[in-house]
Amino acid sequence: MSTVGRILGTAxxxxxxxxxxxxxxxxAQRMAVRKYQAAQAALLIEPGADPGFEALESDRTYSVDTxxxxxxxVEEVGPLDASLTVIFAHGWTLRLGSWHFQRLGLAGxxxxxxxxxxxxxxxxxxxxxxxxxRLVFYDHRSHGKSTRAPEGHSTMDYLASDLRSVIxxxxxxxxxxxxxxxxxxxxxxxxxxxxxxxxxxxxxGVGLVCTGATYLKPSELSKLLIAxxxxxxxxxxxxxxxxxxxxxxxxxxxxxxxxxxxxxxGFSRKDVSGALVDYLxxxxxxxxxxxxxxxxxxxxxxxxxxxxxxxxxIPTMIVAGDQDRMTPLDRSxxxxxxxxxxxMMVAEGSGHMTMMEDPDLTNEALxxxxxxxxxxxxxxxxxxxKKSRWSRTGR
Length: 395
What we know:
Elements: H1 3-9, H2 16-23, H3 26-42, E1 60-65, E2 71-77, E3 84-89, H4 100-105, H5 119-125, E4 133-138, H6 156-170, E5 176-181, H7 183-194, H8 196-201, E6 203-209, H9 218-224, H10 231-242, H11 244-253, H12 255-266, H13 274-285, H14 289-301, E7 316-321, H15 329-338, E8 343-347, H16 354-357, H17 359-392
Parallel strand pairs: 3-4, 3-5, 5-6, 6-7, 7-8
Antiparallel strand pairs: 1-2, 2-4
Helix pairs in contact: 1-2, 2-11, 2-12, 3-12, 6-7, 10-14, 12-13
């Protein structure tokens, strides 16, 4: 293995994506893939079954322009007059399609809950119609169908600014719920630090899926000394950015190695569908290597521990996989310690892609969050209405 290969190999789980893409063990990994597919067949799970990823229709599709010229791809599902707007921010190397099962499961009356009261019975009982959410999905800068960020603009501050641009465009008024997975959750914390007033006044709920206020443990952060320019991170970024063709060739010639690494880092359960792994692998593999490298420094340096209290008083749902190798469970537990009123649901046996690996649990957790956010927004609106009527009577 070359010196560059050894350097990349020591960088840990995250940068292992780059190392494996270029230096995978072809024969061993191919055998592992075939063994996995055989096990899938024994479980009567078709490895190549297509669950319809990328085939879901949108009610509206448009782009949001950021202040530095990046065009963010946005897709919406749900009525414009919905009681809540829910904005989903995906993770590193992914795109908005990673929310496939939430897009299916949370759309419609009652936030997608099929146990809706019959309309005629509801009218007879004078029960209010169940709330409906407008779901907004977008691709981060340099990901999916969004355009590439200028050099030096692949940072958490820019991601937070992008999220604010999406809020301003998609939901300039009304209550908003933010849901973030991994890097998307980090962007939410960063925006909370940038604009706490926005969270106090407009954000009706926050969903945090397999994310953390810090990417590495404090001791690890001190060792990396990112602020001083850690040479390891510099080498990884420079090699990935300056010589992307090397890694892209490695990806194509070591597909089985990359596929197995993707499965290991994204999922944990032995019976996870091969179709899910295929889709995750396709998302990661179509993210340019230089983009992966550009975001490494901001991921390593991420530390928004001080911004977590800004979510106090806002309905918050924390979803975590207890076998997450990318963002270990203790990251979520630390957030819950600071926000004792937050709810936390743990998907047993699930990995980093919990919203895909255990969509039922994730959707139930988010449905609970949306109901809390809806109730809170309705109560605040009622309080404002009472205050307005009181003022008009001159009392």
